[in-house]
Amino acid sequence: MKIYNKYIAAIALSLVLASCKAPMATVIKDEVKENVPQNFNQEDQGDANNNSGTTPWRQFFTDPNLVALIETSLKNNQELMITLQEIEIAKSNVLAKKGRLAPTVTAGGGAGVTKVGRYTSEGAGDASTDIEPGKAVPDPIMNFGGGLTANWEIDIWKKLRTEKESAVAHYLSTVEGKNFVLSNLIEEVADNYYDLLALDNQLDIIQQYIKLQQKALEVSKIQKEAAAATELAVKKFEAELAKSKATEYTIRQEITEKENQINALCGRYPQPIVRTKENFMTTIPQTVYTGIPSQLLANRPDIKQAELELKSSKLDVEAARKEFYPTLEISATLGLEAFKPSYLVKLPESMAASLAGELAGPLINKSAIKANFQTADARQIQALYEYDKTILNAYLDVANLMSKIKNLDQYYQLKSQETKSLEQSIDIANQLFRNSRADYLEVLLNQRDALDAKMELVEAKQKQLSTVVDIYKSLGGGWK
Asked: pLDDT tens, 18-53?
C-alpha cells in the first residue's frame, strides 16, 4: 500500500511541476500617461479649480429649445439604447463569472433496467442474494433513484476570481462607454442646432438680397428707358436675381436636411424643429475654462473607458496564464436508489452517496492554452496602445480647440468690420448708379461682396458656438 501511495504522490508532483511551467506575460509600461504636459500650451498656466468639463450640461446650455431637444434625444436615441443593452450584457457576464465561484447543485431522478449475464460475477451474485427471505434479486433488475449532485471547482489559484474581476472591469468600461455616447450625442445635437440657426439667418440674408436685386433691376430698366443704361445692365441684374433665388432654394433644402438630422438624433420621424433665430447673431459664446491636462484623465469618459479596458485585458492575461495550472474539482452525490419503488423509503438501506476529488492539469499538447494566452497577451498590448492613443488625442483636441476659439474671435471681429463697410458701400454705389456716376458692374460687385461677407459672418458665429460645444465635450463635459 505504501508503494502505491508513493506512486500517487510522484504522479501528483510531476503533474503540478509540468503544469506550472507557464509562460510570462509581456510587461507593459504606460509612458504616455506619465508624460502628460502640465499645461495645454506655454501661454496657458491652467487652473485646477476651473474646468468646464465638470459643468452639468443643463447649466452649460441656456437655450430652452436646445435643452428640450437634448432631453428628447436622451430618451429616444437608438445608439444610446444599444449602448445601454451592452451594459446589461456586461452585467450578466459578471454574474456568470461570479456564479462559477460557488458549487453547482442539481436535482434529478430517473429509472432504468439492466439485464446481466447469468454466468458473470454480477449475475451469479444477484442470483445467490436474497433481498428478503425467499425473495431473490429480480432478473432483469430495475433501478429507480433520485437525489442531489454537486460539482465545485476549488479556486486554488484564484483564476475564477481573476476572471470575475476582469468581467467587473469590462462592465465598468461599458458604463463609461455609455457616458461617452451621451457626451457625443449632446455635442451632435447642439452642433446641428447651431447649424440650423445659421441656415435660418442665411436664408433671411438671401431673401433681403433678392429684394435688393429686384430694386436694382427696376432701376436698370428705368435707366435703359432713359438711355442712361444698356440692355446688358438689365440682363446682368436679371441673371444675378435668378442666381440669388436659386441659392434660396439650396438653403431651404439644407434646412430640411438639418432638421431631419436633428429628428434622427431624437429618434423620431420628421417634424419641425422649434427654435428662435432672431437672437443668433447676438448670442455670446460660453466662457470655457480648460483646467489642467491631468483633469482629462478624470473627466473624459472615453479615457476612463480605455483605462478600464486595459485593466480588464491585464486580468485576462493573468487568468489565461493560470490555465496552465492544475485544477481541483470536487463532486458529490446524495440520494435514494432501489430496484423497486417501494424500497426507496426504506432508510438507510436505500441511501446512496459518493464523494470524489480530482486534480488534473495539462501535460501534453498545450497548444490551445498557449494560443489563448498569446491572444490575451496581444490584446493587453493592444489595449495599452488604445489607451495611450485616447489620451494623446484628447490632449491634442483641447489644444487645437483652444487655439481655434482665439482665432475665431479675431476672425469674427474682422468680418463684422468688413460687413459694416460693405453695407455702406452698397448704399453709395446704388446712389451713384441712380445718378449715372457708376456703372452696373460696380453695383453688382459691391452687392456680391456684401452678401458673401454677411454669409461668412453667420458662418463665423456658428463656428464660434460649435467650437465652444466641441471643447466642452473634449474637456469631459456633456454626460453629467
From this structure: 555 678 878 777 677 777 777 776 555 455 567 777
Q: What is the pLDDT of residues 8-21, one digit of tens each?
A: 555 555 555 555 56
Instruction: Judge whether residue 271 has pLDDT over 60.
Output: yes
Residues found in the chain? 480
Amino acid, res. 62: T
User: Distance between alpha carbon 77 and the CA centroid of its chain, in Å?
Assistant: 13
Helix (H, G, I), strand (E, B) or coil at 292: coil
Band of pLDDT at residue 477, cut at 50, 70 and 90: confident
- Our measurement of the distance from residue 98's CA atom to the centroid of its chain's CA atoms, rounded to an integer in Å, reads 25
Q: Give residue 333's pLDDT.
A: 94
Round to whole Å and give the CA distance between 319 and 325: 10
Q: Give the closest residue to 277 by CA, choosing from 196, 190, 189.
A: 196
Rounded distance between C-alpha atoms, residue 158 and residue 374, angstroms: 20
| Cell numbers given for 412 | 469674427
pTM across the whole model: 0.84
Question: Which residues touch 453 (CB under 8 Å, ≥6 apart)?
Answer: 415, 418, 419, 422
The rounded Cα 220 to chain-centroid distance in angstroms is 60
Q: Give all strands (DSSP E) within 54-204, no chain letters.
A: 104-114, 130-132, 135-136, 141-154
Angle CA(100)–CA(82)–CA(380) in degrees, nearest 5? Answer: 55
| Mean residue pLDDT across the chain | 86
| pLDDT tens-digit readout, 347-359 | 888 899 999 988 8
Q: What whole-number distance in Å separates Cα of residue 358 and Cα of residue 362? A: 13
| Residue 251: CB atoms within 10 Å | 18
CB contact set of 187 (below 8 Å; sequence gap of 6+): 469, 470, 472, 473, 478
What cell was used for 310? 486595459
